[in-house]
Structures are given as structure tokens and as C-alpha cells.
């Protein structure tokens, strides 16, 4: 077994975060595509609590939960391309915004894609509000942490291919509300690690419709 | 330098989340001023420093505001000298963070529903789910004094609810999660935790919590019914 292995699913934005981080750090690893309908012994043994991907196996030891994996990657390979800044306050802010993305955006996404009528209208309002908050937090910076691509960028960029799907389901334009986020996403896509990891937005829309039923 | 700048903690006396921040500060040996917040009438100070969530705890360190109890704990560990809260090894750190997150993601909702739903099949289901969660936590202790070993640390503080608050809820609702003969390691750990010198100084008395939860019964039941009908995430 390779020293570093990633149990993942090709279209998972959470798995993609880990792929980007490993690529940025120059860490060689074995990618293991998992069947989520029929979970492997290895996956169930490695993540018995949640039974989910991604799981990073380092020397056979599992690390679960994508943001925890990102932090682990940063700490286990500290010399290359730090993802978190050095200053404790800047680190706290990065953690805060990564949590915001995982709690707020993901919650809005689920509601936007799986509800109808009033509930969906509310989800759309909440989603636009959350994206605008992130747009405001980014401000005129190149990246969320400032001049360098880092933790929050990795956490958020893998959700950007989902914008097209949000727009289709919610009937709104992300760019109209959050032009800076859209520009930032394009800037991130110039990085090889990001370009290689992201799913094509049309493909995301296709998958979502299959999963949740047509819009 | 930064370390010497004054520290303030905006919070309430009964919140386990505020306790996490207070305990972390005390364990680290950082003096702080507690600013009590009335959550029914939120102060300008709170709204200014936590505009996104408008919740306690908030730690103010000089002109910096840090929100969210687990983020606060990591900040305290990194910004100040003193005994480390998190382990030093990256894998052990990831393990501690995983279980702290487990408490939020997997435990908060079933805990509330187990405690506050009217007795019945649904409520029984949540009791079962919570006991399974407690069994997992029990398994993490594995005969150790604290989650990280001999010394109190991040995960112990993060899990404070299971050391103290849970017993107050049980007393008020009559719902038993930590029965007399169940989870011996967690019960023993809970005693160690609540008897720690630094923890004692910022732990609300159980009688206080019982009085508060009794007074809030109707409100909690209302919140719980709302929670039940919300679609569960992921």
C-alpha cells in the first residue's frame, strides 16, 4: 500500500479539496475511486463513524472530514506551500470562514436543490446572502488570505463548479451578485492543481438532476 | 507584544460553548475579563464583533475578535504561551479535531431531540442514537485519564457537555442517557474534568443549570419540535 492514499469519489467537492492540497504540497499519493453505492471494506474500516469520503490514509492511518484533512496535510508537510498563514489571528479567520462555507453554503445548497416553492425561495435568498457575505469578505484581495492561495480558497473553490447548478435551480446570476467571487474563481482555476481537480459545471448539473430529480 | 494585550470574553454563565473558551483561557493561564451578555437583548459589542452569527462566545484580544468556540480554543492555543491544549503530533491533532467536530455534527441534534421530545417511539430512537454516540466517546477514552492522555486538553474541554451539562439535562427531563452502570470511563472522566482546578473556576453549578433548564422547558420543547421538522443536513 502506498504511503499516502486518498479514498475519494470523482465528483466530490470535498474530496477535490484534498486533491488540490496534496498537489499544491507536491505529495505523491495513490488515488482510490470509491463506489458509494457499495462501500468498500477499506472505506468502512477507515471511516466507521461517518462511512464517507474523503479519507486520507497516511502510513495506513485514516484522517476523515475534508477540512480536518486539509489541516492535517498542512501540518504533516509543513515546508511546502503553507495553506494556513502563520499569524494566529489570520489562522482563526481562515478557520472561521472555512466553517462558514461548510455550514452555510452547503446547507443553502442542499435546501436550494431539494426543496420547492416557499422553502426553495428562502433557500435562494439565503444562498445569495451567503455568497454576498463571502464576496464582501474577499473584497479586493486576490485570495481570501490575501496575496497567497490558501486554506479558505481550497475550501471554497471546489464548490464554484456548483454555481451553474445554483443558478439553474434558483434562477439567479451569481456574477450579478458576486462579481469578485466569480473573478476569484477564474483566478484559482489558473492553478494546475485546481484546474485538474474541478468537475465541469455542466457535469455537476447533470449529476444533481440525476440525484435529486430534474429542476 | 500581542500576548500582553487585554483579553475579554463575551458570554453567558450557563453556556457550555462559553465555558470552552473560559476553560481554555484558564488552562493556558491567560487572565481575562468576562463580559456577560443578555441573549434576549444583544449588545452593540456582540453585534459588532460577531455580525455573522450574533452568538456567544466571542473572545476579544486587543482589537481582534475571534468567534466560534472551537476556533477560539485553537486561537488561544496558538496566540499564548502555556501548556499546549492540542497534542503536538499532526495525527493526534487530527484525531482530537475529528471528535470535537463529531460532538457538533452527530450529537447536538439527537441530544436535544432525545431530551425534549415527548416520550414515544421517535424520542426512543434518538435516545438510542445518543447512547451509540456516547459509546463511541467512551471508546476514545480507553482507560486514559483524559482524551489526550494524562493531561487535560482540547478534546476534554470540547466535550465538557458530556462531563457536566448532560447530568443537569437528565435531572430536569428525567431522560437517562448516562445510566448508573453505563459508560464508566465517561463518568470517571467527567469527575476528573469537573474537579480540575482551572475548570472549576468557570463551571456553572449544576443547581444553577437545573434551575435554568427547568425555567426554559416550554421554550426548549418548542425549539425541539421545530428542529425535528427541519430537514437534517447530509
UniProtKB/TrEMBL annotation, chain A:
Pfam families: GST_C, GST_N. It catalyses: RX + glutathione = an S-substituted glutathione + a halide anion + H(+). Keywords: Transferase. Belongs to the GST superfamily. Conjugation of reduced glutathione to a wide number of exogenous and endogenous hydrophobic electrophiles. The keyword Transferase applies. This is Probable glutathione S-transferase GSTU1. One of its GO terms (cellular component) is cytoplasm.
From TrEMBL, chain B:
Residues 5-84 form the GST N-terminal domain. SUPFAM superfamilies: GST C-terminal domain-like, Thioredoxin-like. It comes from the Eukaryota. GO terms for molecular function: glutathione transferase activity. It catalyses: RX + glutathione = an S-substituted glutathione + a halide anion + H(+). GO terms for cellular component: cytoplasm. Pfam families: GST_C, GST_N_3. Residues 89-213 form the GST C-terminal domain. GO terms for biological process: glutathione metabolic process. PANTHER family: GLUTATHIONE S-TRANSFERASE, GST, SUPERFAMILY, GST DOMAIN CONTAINING (PTHR11260), GLUTATHIONE TRANSFERASE (PTHR11260:SF763). This is glutathione transferase.
